[in-house]
Amino acid sequence: MTTAISRFPHLKRDVAASFVVFLVALPLCVGVAVASGVPAELGLVTGIVGGIVAGLLPGSSLQVSGPAAGLTVLVMEAVDRYGLSALGVLVLGTGLLQLAMGALRLGRWFRAISVSVVEGMLAGIGLVIMAGQVYAAAGLSAPASGLGKIAGLPKAAGDVLGSSTAQASVAVGAVTVALLALWPRLPRQVRAVPGALAAVLLITPVTLLLDLPVETVRVEGLLDAIQPPDADAFGGLAHPAFYGTIIAFTLIASAESLFSAAAVDRLHDGPRTRYDQELMAQGAGNTVCGLLGALPMTAVIVRSSANVQAGARTKASRVLHGVWLLLFAALLPQALALIPLPVLAGVLLHAGWKLIPFRQVAALWRSHRGEALILVATAVSIVAVNMFEGVLIGLALSVIKTAWQASHVQLEIVDKGAGPIQAHLTGNATFLRLPRILDSLEALPRDRPVELHLSGLHHLDHACRTALLNWAERHSAAGTAPVKVMEPTP
Predict the structure, then answer these.
(1) Which residue numbers delimit the SLC26A/SulP transporter domain (predicted)?
(2) How far, CA to CA in Å, does 263 sit from each of 22, 279, 445?
(3) What tens digit of pLDDT does each residue of 346-365 get?
(4) What contacts 213, CB < 8 A, 6 or more positions away?
(5) What are the sequence ranges of the domains in the chain?
(6) What is the pLDDT, as a whole number, of residue 20?
(7) Which of 417, 407, 380, 379 is nearest to 464 (CA)?
(8) What CATH class has 409-486?
(9) What's the 3-state SS for the chain?
(10) pTM for this structure?
């Protein structure tokens, strides 16, 4: 016994933390799967792989992986478009691409992605999840698009008012959300039980006792739910859009995982995350998930923070949480069939609300309004178009903003009343600033000699140089000395 303690000094804390993470992960694994339109067992499979496979690999010692609400919208779109059988191929492609990116040491570059884009991505996902789970809570079919979900809410409200069954289902979902909102305010001893698990454990028996007409989780059995991709499933590789979905899975899963790793590092004073190795761990996990036909895997900040707060010290806690999920899925699968769907909808609706960074938007608006606008534009684009294109729009806006800021240039006009007028350009002259520069230069008198000094420029791009030379050639009036251009020193 003494030898075991000396070899594993943190085992007691890690075992205790693993139970906490298991209790947090269980309802979320099931809820994310149901919200993604796939069998509930596939969410558990991804949680098991995230714990055991990714948990054993190096990278981030305390970060916990599994199915994430952040990919729910994209997974549902992919399943609707390509079918459930193609999901394994998409996730397999994601895993292999992550492994390649990690091997090429690209993991650290994800830290260069604008935080505003990531926050906007999460906000857009949160809005779509919330809108979709309102329909799920009412037992109604949700429209496919994000805008359709939001636009259809008034009609859904009318349908609920006209159906006692829908009203009972919405009431269960509303009680779940209220319980989750109030849970952090309860005494510390009560909050030892995770809020999502408490909602399932408290509300499920009430619905059974009252015999409420609400739908429950459909159970297929763990082995029946696992469907490795067959030859037909790889047929999607013939379509270019299929690769776009794989890239979207990869970018979003990788960014969410590595940003989560950075956040987890701030919660503890243990070993820091090795980003390239963590990306390969995520890739290995997604490769296994793809081979099993399960949901894509990411690191999840809710489970990771619960792991740290529960006192975990090593990766043993996250591996054991995967073991507990496996035992539950193997020994108690029928327990899932008792869980009401509106309870899971309430859990996901609350999770979607927490994805929207209200405080960050307010803080950015006070200090960096451009970043706040990028955040909002990314979120709106995801709701209006789709996940992949919304993120691309956010990244494009971020690049444009950075280029605009980097092309800071000043034009100083020196006119001593006699002799030539001197125009001094300093900074970085690019095509983005060209209209303002030309407006100022064209306002100079055409009957006076002009000297254009470019020696103070750090950078002068081809478009800007060509435009300035063209202006110099045509500016001077007849009988006036042509504009003299002082080129920057090479």
Answers:
(1) 11-378
(2) 21, 15, 58
(3) 887 887 888 788 887 888 88
(4) 164, 165, 168, 169
(5) 2-357, 409-486
(6) 79
(7) 407
(8) alpha beta
(9) CHHHHHHCCCHHHHHHHHHHHHHHHHHHHHHHHHHCCCCHHHHHHHHHHHHHHHHHCCCCCCCCEECCHHHHHHHHHHHHHHCHHHHHHHHHHHHHHHHHHHHCCCHHHHHHCCHHHHHHHHHHHHHHHHHHHHHHHHCCCCCCCHHHHHHCHHHHHHHHHCCHHHHHHHHHHHHHHHHHHHHHHCCCCHHHCCHHHHHHHHHHHHHHHHCCCCCECCCCCHHHHCCCCCCHHHHHHHCHHHHHHHHHHHHHHHHHHHHHHHHHHCCCCCCCCCHHHHHHHHHHHHHHHHHHCCCCCEECHHHHHHHHHCCCCCCHHHHHHHHHHHHHHHHCHHHHHHCEHHHHHHHHHHHHHHHCCHHHHHHHHHHCHHHHHHHHHHHHHHHHCCHHHHHHHHHHHHHHHHHHHHCCEEEEEECCCCCCEEEEEEEEECHHHHHHHHHHHHCCCCCCCEEEEEEEEEEECHHHHHHHHHHHHHHCCCCCCCCEEECCCC
(10) 0.71
Q: What is the pLDDT of residues 287-334, one digit of tens each?
A: 999 999 999 999 877 788 778 877 788 888 999 999 999 988 888 878
